[in-house]
Amino acid sequence: MLQFIIYGFLLLCFSIHLIKLSRPTPTTTNNKKRITKLPPSPPKLPVLGNLHQLGLYAHRSLQTLARRHGPLMHLRFGTVPVVVASSAAAAREIMKTHDHNFSGRVESAVAAKLLYDYEDISTAPYGEGWRQRRGVCVVHLLSNRRVQSFRRVREEETAILMKRMRDQRVVDLSESFATLTNDVVCRAALGRKYSELGSNGGRKFNELLLEFMELLGSFNVGDFIPWLRWINIFTGFSVRVDTIAKEFDDFLEEVVDEHTRKLENRASRETEEDREEEEEERFGGYSSEPPKRIITKFEIVFCGQDMFAAGTDTSYTVLEWAMTELLRHPKTMERLRDEARRVGKGEAEINEDDLDEMLYLKAVMKETLRMYPPIPLLVPRKPSRSVEIEGYHVPAGTMTMVNAWAIGRDPGIWEQPEEFSQRGF
Question: Where is the signal peptide (predicted)?
Answer without folding.
Answer: 1-24
